[in-house]
Amino acid sequence: xxxxxxxxxxxxxxxxxxxxxxxxxxxxxxxxxxxxxxxxxxxxxxxxxxxxxxxxxxxxxxxxxxxxxxxxxxxxxxxxxxxxxxxxxxxxxxxxxxxxxxxxxxxxxxxxxxxxxxxxxxxxxxxxxxxxxxxxxxxxxxxxxxxxxxxxxxxxxxxxxxxxxxxxxxxxxxxxxxxxxxxxxxxxxxxxxxxxxxxxxxxxxxxxxxxxxxxxxxxxxxxxxxxxxxxxxxxxxxxxxxxxxxxxxxxxxxxxxxxxxxxxxxxxxxxxxxxxxxxxxxxxxxxxxxxxxxxxxxxxxxx
Length: 303
Description:
5-stranded antiparallel sheet; 4-stranded mixed sheet; alpha+beta; single chain
């Protein structure tokens, strides 16, 4: 709704109201219908656009309704794009008692959803569709980047020479969202960590064999963090992060200790974790510092 401090104030009130209304009206269409009545009584809120969605992370299903907002863009892992143009109706505060439509879509494994304000795509004397098409093209060519990298690419790649004339906001979600686990360096944490990672990898759309490979490689990294990284400080913190890209998954295991150098021998079954990890995933790197050790595991997903 416009730009500047006055517009931001109105939008802040509408956003807070929408959050509260979703507690009583758990569907996007019902929440926007109730927000309509609030906007009609809020000075300066008439003709505000809004997009309201409810996401189920476990399945990737998005229920949504749009009040005159630019259509979100959904990019599949194979780089095909789709505009979410269903569930669309008039801006807020325009017509009383308007029945708001609602639509549903399933964000596929490693699919990326972009929500944005019109300031990202609207240019003087140029059709709005042209800007939306440019957004879709940038998304298609950036499917293998992280959401943070993608946001930077969009903001820089679409910026006019004289800078943006309107306020710009973007929200990017990739299915599944990042996995973030914090736990203590204890062998009892291996099983629950493995279960959480297995469920996340399944939502990424990996096949059974690759899921098992990533699980075993990550298990070695976690075991090393527990056994070696905290051999002098039992129970220290360990973190596991995992993110999905269109063509691969990236798992990071971090501890606050120092690993012992591997010392395999002909008669020992120990000290072979690094070799096993490198056989199971495409890329492994270990970064020791004075503050701890970080292991990065990359597994490419066949097309």
